[in-house]
Write a structure and sequence with these properties.
By secondary structure, the chain is an alpha/beta fold. 44% of the residues lie in helices and 13% in strands. It has 3 domains: 88 residues, no CATH class; 313 residues, 3-Layer(aba) Sandwich (Rossmann fold); 279 residues, 3-Layer(aba) Sandwich (Rossmann fold), CATH 3.40.50.2000. Bound molecules: pyridoxal-5'-phosphate.
């Protein structure tokens, strides 16, 4: 399939391949490739949102000419281009060596993809996981294509007002400045597909982003032939309007199948990342029925090649639509399927106690998947109980949902200086042995002083970034000169630094530290062992309690009692996440067990030598050992939420007072916290080789993607 060639008219011949580099998000996990863009013009790099395509459109032509004549730059350029070419053509990948006989690609569908900040089509954890999934698939040589939507506006930018109010701004994306290219049809126009719903036809054109070897196809309805309403289907991610949400999911599921067909891709496995894309099942059944297969047989047939990942341990968090709404959208469809309304609705309804008014996207997915999985072991147990009613003839233990624990793409989330350090002490091959426990044992060989200094360098960079952001925010909010000067001097790299950054949903319990304010105040300011805490995170614009929580924390952060030891950093996104996870000493995570399906940010922290202080939920319950971090609360079900909050918060205060703070401030003659560094090393050794997307993809291939000889 052809994509429209890019055009950067003033790139000199000597640096012409920068164009290819800008359009392959491979650059995003290769620090040396990022440096090529950064060195062109660092302020512009930041101003463009670290977007190489926009960078090449806007950078001064004279500057590029100049770089083409700089020996050092050209040498780095050659090395990066050689590495990229080698990567893209290498045949000795993990997958090729083990699984040559795979019939066709995996189609991986997701409502959001968080690959890099230059492609802002993600909101949070689900999207980041999808982005990391594509990167590891590419690294391992797994034949896979992504399918999603290209949103006209980025998920919102968060600004905090002086009163702590979250304001959301939607930034308009100019697609010609994004790392995406038009997919071209045979007639020389951009390839366009159509879906029919509510008796009308909706057109969508196709774009392609390239993530290493893996293409990501994105649909976009902003076309003049669509009505104004339909042009807005791909305007925003996670709109509140239920009708619009249904149209988005019809476009993703049904349009996605048609897009792959139009491109000429015939997947051998269809992977649904969460239930938003489950309509792909309906479309694939329809195709088989229209080709002459009886309905029941078509259902069995598509089931053989469909797999599903569930992420949501709260029933209400699973996507549902009113049957009346489904009826008007799908009536012509069930006629084509040769079934009646009730049979159609039962595709998305529990067999045991069907809700006659709801069509559930997770149930649609569970019924029609050969394999399904949850995203951590505890989440697996919770999911099997939660969905037992969908499989009434099975006990909860027999419900066919396995567990594949999430991971992160290590090379994306590990900071450059940490990678350099590993090169020195582990040898550069660690990159290709991410899942080998033995190589990570060598972290023990890094001298304490060296590891500590690298960490402190990263921490200083984080605090500097936070100061800059804070000054900008206060300036924007019209604060006084004193307040601006205060922001310039805030935070101290010698202080124990905690980070808490995530979506402000209730179950994450972002305000747990404030449960006993006096005790917190004493912890932060009451001794010669000070503690500072960085908070960041967005609340969905419709989530009033989430926004109230942000307001509370922001107001506390400005309360003089806390002496600037609490800072709320606005606009948590990939850029800020990268800084936070690489610079904090401790990552605090306080979900209401067992509602954090997996969580991944603590894994990013461990990849950089940070230490987790977390509730035993999701991934941490599997990773925690006594020497590699701290566990808040107990590994059990609580009687009620009050007991849980009380137990967990007491445990958190006690751990900070008696374990975390003393360990950090116990220094040897050289000022190195030896016990702390030992724990940093244990954290890296235990977490990195297991909680990464390479291990995760290997599990997906072996237990979900490869055909089973006997079926399930
Ligand atoms: C990693 C990441 C997440 C996921 O965070 P968890 O709360 O650990 O699931 C969300 N948002 C951003 C920007 C991230 O980088």
């Amino acid at each position: 399939m052809k994509v429209l060639e890019h055009h950067f008219p003033f790139l000199p011949e000597r640096l012409i391949r920068l164009g290819d580099l800008a359009y392959n998000l491979w650059f995003s996990w290769h620090s040396k490739a990022v440096d090529l863009f950064k060195e062109m013009d660092q302020p512009l790099w930041e101003r463009t949102g670290r977007n190489p395509v926009r960078m090449l459109h806007e950078v001064d032509a004279g500057r590029i000419e100049e770089l083409a004549g700089e020996k050092a730059y050209v040498r780095k350029y050659d090395a990066v281009i050689r590495a990229m070419d080698h990567y893209l053509t290498d045949k000795k990948t993990w997958f090729n060596i083990r699984h040559e006989a795979f019939p066709g690609p995996v189609a991986y569908f997701s409502m959001e993809f968080g690959v890099h900040e230059s492609l802002p089509i993600y909101s949070g954890g689900l999207g980041i996981l999808a982005g990391d999934h594509l990167k590891s698939a590419s690294d391992l040589g797994i034949p896979l294509v992504g399918v999603g939507l290209l949103y006209r506006e980025s998920y919102f930018t968060q600004q905090i007002s002086l009163s702590g109010h979250q304001q959301s701004h939607y930034v308009y994306n100019n697609f010609s400045n994004l790392p995406v290219r038009a997919v071209m049809g045979k007639n020389g126009d951009q390839l366009t597909i159509h879906v029919v719903t509510d008796g009308k036809q909706i057109a969508a054109k196709l774009w392609q982003a390239q993530i290493g070897r893996v293409p990501l196809y994105l649909l976009d309805t902003d076309l003049p032939e669509n009505s104004n309403g339909d042009r807005k289907i791909t305007e925003r991610l996670y709109v509140g309007d239920r009708d619009m949400r249904l149209l988005q999911e019809i476009l993703l599921g049904i349009g996605g199948v048609r897009a792959l067909d139009a491109i000429g891709i015939a997947p051998s496995v269809w992977h649904m990342n969460e239930g938003h894309c489950s309509f792909l099942i309906v479309e694939r059944i329809r195709r088989l029925v229209e080709s002459g297969m009886p309905f029941d047989q078509a259902v069995e047939e598509i089931r053989k090649t469909t797999v599903f990942t569930t992420h949501t341990p709260i029933p209400a968090g699973n996507e549902m639509f009113e049957t009346a709404r489904i009826e008007s959208a799908f009536r012509p469809c069930w006629e084509k399927l040769g079934i009646d309304r009730d049979r159609f609705m039962r595709l998305g309804q529990s067999r045991k106690d069907p809700d006659p008014h709801a069509f559930n996207m997770t149930i649609l997915a569970l019924y029609h998947s050969r394999e399904a999985n949850a995203v951590s072991r505890l989440h697996g147990t919770v999911s099997r109980h939660m969905w037992q009613h969908v499989f009434p003839d099975r006990s909860a233990e027999e419900v066919p949902i396995r567990a594949i624990t999430n991971g992160v793409h290590t090379r994306t989330w590990m900071a450059g200086p940490m990678k350099d350090l590993l090169d020195r002490y582990l040898g550069p091959d660690w990159r290709h042995q991410i899942t080998e426990t033995a190589i990570w044992e060598k972290v023990g060989r890094i001298p304490d002083k060296v590891l500590w200094e690298t960490h402190q360098t990263l921490k200083k960079a984080l605090l500097e970034e936070v100061r800059c952001r804070l000054v900008r925010e206060r300036d924007r909010n019209g604060e006084s000169g004193d307040a601006l000067r205060e922001a310039e001097a805030i935070l101290n790299p010698e202080f124990l630094t905690l980070g808490f950054a995530r979506r402000f949903a209730q179950y994450k319990r972002g305000a747990m530290l404030f449960r006993d304010r006096e005790r917190l105040k004493h912890l932060l300011t009451g001794s010669d062992r000070p503690v500072q805490i960085l908070f960041a995170g967005k609340a969905h614009p419709a989530d009033q309690p989430g926004k109230a929580l942000i307001r509370e924390i922001y107001q506390e952060s400005r309360n003089p009692e806390f002496q600037n030891r609490i800072v709320f950093v606005e606009n948590y996104d990939i850029t800020l996440a990268r800084h936070l996870v690489s610079g904090v000493d401790v990552w605090l995570n306080t979900p209401r067990r067992p509602l954090e399906a997996s969580g991944t940010s603590g894994m990013k922290v461990a990849a950089n030598g940070g230490i987790n202080l977390s509730v035993l939920d999701g991934w941490w319950r599997e990773a925690y050992q006594e020497d590699n971090g701290w566990a808040i609360g107990e590994d059990r079900d609580y009687y009620n939420e009050w007991e849980q909050d009380e137990t967990d918060s007491q445990s958190l205060y006690n751990l900070l007072e008696h374990a975390v703070i003393p360990l950090y401030y116990t220094r040897n003659g050289e000022g190195i916290p030896e016990g702390w560094v030992k724990r940093m090393k244990a954290s890296m050794t235990a977490v990195i080789p297991v909680f990464n997307t390479h291990r995760m993809l290997m599990e997906y291939v072996e237990s979900m993607y490869l055909p089973k000889p006997s079926g399930k």
